[in-house]
Every structure is written in C-alpha cells, then in structure tokens.
Q: What sequence folds into this?
C-alpha cells in the first residue's frame, strides 16, 4: 500500500560479484505434472528473457548464464500451462552464481528461497518489513470498512494521515537499519533506493559510503553513485535546479519566472494512481493559499503520444495551476535533472528558489504553508 511508484527498483543493473554468472534454479511445488508450467522472466543486457518448463512430479529446473549477478527475476506458476500472464502466482528471485532452491506446497508466492546470498538476504529483508506490510494492510482494511461519510470527514482524514506518516517513518527506519547492518549486500542497494525517496542527501550519501567497496563498484553501485551529484543539487537548503518545459499550450515555462513566490514543484503523471490519489490534497492546499504568494508548477511524467490523457487528468482532478511536460515518461529531462525515481514527489521552494521542504503529503503541505504564510 506504499503510495508511491518507484522506477529504479524494477531495473537495477546486474551486480558483479560473480565472474561467470552461471545459475541454476531448482524447485518443487506440490506434485504437479504437465500441463502445469513454471515460467522464468528477467531482464539482461537490455532485453527481457523468458523461459518455461513443464513440471514433473512437482519438480522443475532452469539454468543459464547472466555474465554477472544478481539480476532480479520473476518465477511464475500456471497449473494449466496457458501462459506466463494467465496466473497471479509468482515469486521474485535474484539470479546469481550458484544453485537457487525454491520449495512450495501449493502456492509459489509462499515458496521458501534458499541457496544464494542475495536471495537469503532478500528473505531477511522481507521478514524485517512484515510489520510494515501488516500495518498498511490493517490501515487499508480500516479505510474499506469506513462509510463514505466517515471517509470524507476531516477527523478521519487527519487520523489516516497520522497513521500513514507513522508507518512511513517506521519504513524508513527499517530500511536504514538494514543498510547499516548489511553493508556487503546487494539488497542494501535496493533498500537504499527506497530510502532515498524520502531522505535528504547527507543521509543518503553517508549510507552509500558505508557500503563495502565491492558493493559500490558493482554496476548497480556505480549507477547509484552517478545519481549522488544530482541528489546533492536537490538537498534541503540548496537552490532548486533551473528548468524550462512546455506547458499545455506549448509555451515554454521557466522555473525562475516564479521567483518571489513560494512554489511547489510537483512531479506526477496521469497514469500514476498514488499521484491521482494525492491530487485532492494538493488542490485543497492550492485553493487555500493561492492568493498568499504561493503557487504550484506541476511536472508530468506522462508518456509519449499521451498528451490527451495528461490533459484529461488535469481537467478531471481540477489542477488549475501551471502544468508542464515533455511527455518522455521516466526520461523526462526535468525528472532526470532532479534525480526522480518515484512519484508523486514534490519540492517546496521559498521566494528565492531555495528548497525548504520535500515530499509534503496529505495535510503536511497545508501545515507547512500555514507555518510559512499564516492561518487562513
């Protein structure tokens, strides 16, 4: 239920501890036989690789070479053998040198994965996050059980926001502790990607620098190191990087043209469910403070040839402030400039263009504006 969409976790490059990257995946799920199939899919050298095998007495095996590892992959089970996407029973694994073993009774998603370091570290990471998953599940159940009237009440929204903030703080603390306790683990790089969404540069850099040289020198580590200078430019207290983008009518808008006002730079997209869910909070804050030296510039990560969807979302959600986009999805030049790896994400700037707050969600934006501009 974590209400952000992260790009980087799905496409971290291969790790380079192993030289040959020869892997074997072997497993057992019940006593299934043909036509039941197991499917393996992963990305390697910019290509999506898909393999499949029939089950025999519940057993299956894959083998191959990935050059280096780990590489994130998905194993999917379809007892009818009708295709990979015809089943929702899947398990994430990490392909790396050695033998990876999966053991399950009837559901692959509950399989135990053992045999290699990244997979065993990932299992420990998952256990550490169980309280977070349980807390989000309980909060979601509470929201679903509430009546529409309760859900619309200010007291209910405030309580919900407080609960989400508490869970998010616990989430960050667990990520940080895992990284500190496991400086030699590939999974710590994944944890750092998640942690970096809400943390500031000094903390992120310190955690990265605490990883072992072997981890830092992997492809994934080098990729993250390349992001650090960008994260430094968007640290609290720094001047927000200048950008120029076309608005909905094609007019080029410069960030610097908003100097003299408090400005929220809000990264979102029409396809992003969490962003659309957050938009009512942004609209509420804007309508309250738009006459008090405050405005917003929305930067959309909408996809190529999807301007109609972008415009429709702006209209439907009532986003009456300035909106810009180059319609380049995750390759948005402004998103790349700001090191954006997850949305929604925002930056509050003071009248001089200095970044004074980040990722103000729920009532946090209104609370911060009230602190700065007074109660209205």
A:
């Amino acid at each position: 239920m974590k209400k952000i969409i992260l790009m980087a976790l799905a496409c971290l490059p291969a790790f380079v501890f192993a030289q040959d990257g020869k892997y074997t995946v072997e497993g057992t799920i019940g006593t299934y036989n043909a036509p039941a199939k197991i499917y393996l899919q992963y990305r390697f050298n910019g290509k999506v690789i898909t393999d499949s095998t029939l089950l025999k007495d519940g057993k299956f095996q894959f083998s191959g070479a990935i050059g280096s590892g780990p590489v994130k992959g998905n194993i999917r089970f379809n007892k009818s053998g009708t295709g990979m996407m015809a089943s929702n029973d899947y398990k994430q694994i990490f392909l790396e040198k050695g033998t990876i073993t999966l053991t399950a009774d009837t559901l692959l998603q509950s399989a135990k994965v053992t045999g290699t370091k990244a997979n065993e570290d990932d299992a420990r990471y998952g256990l550490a996050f169980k309280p977070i998953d349980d807390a989000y599940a309980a909060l979601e159940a509470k929201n679903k059980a509430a009546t529409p009237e309760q859900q619309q009440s200010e007291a209910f929204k405030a309580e919900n926001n407080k609960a989400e903030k508490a869970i998010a703080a616990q989430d960050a603390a667990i990520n940080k502790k895992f990284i500190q306790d496991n400086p030699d683990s590939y999974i710590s790089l994944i944890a750092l990607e998640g942690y970096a969404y809400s943390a500031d540069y000094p903390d992120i850099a310190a955690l990265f620098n605490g990883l072992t040289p072997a981890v830092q020198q992997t492809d994934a580590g080098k990729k993250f190191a390349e992001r650090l200078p960008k994260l430094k430019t968007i640290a609290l207290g720094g001047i927000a990087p200048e950008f120029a983008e076309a608005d909905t009518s094609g007019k080029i808008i410069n960030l610097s043209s908003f100097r003299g006002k408090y400005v929220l730079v809000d990264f979102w997209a029409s396809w992003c469910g969490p962003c659309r869910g957050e938009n009512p909070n942004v609209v509420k804050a804007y309508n309250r403070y738009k006459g008090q030296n405050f405005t917003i510039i929305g930067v959309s990560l909408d996809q190529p040839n999807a301007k109609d969807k972008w415009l429709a979302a702006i209209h439907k959600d009532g986003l009456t402030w300035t909106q810009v986009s180059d319609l380049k999805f995750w390759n948005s030049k402004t998103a790349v400039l700001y090191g954006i790896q997850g949305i929604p994400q925002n930056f509050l700037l003071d009248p001089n263009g200095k970044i004074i707050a980040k990722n103000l969600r729920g009532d946090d934006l209104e609370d911060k504006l009230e602190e700065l501009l007074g109660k209205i």
Notes: The chain is about 40% helix and 25% strand. Residues 8-19 have pLDDT under 50 and may be disordered. The first helix runs from residue 117 to 128. The radius of gyration is 23 Å.
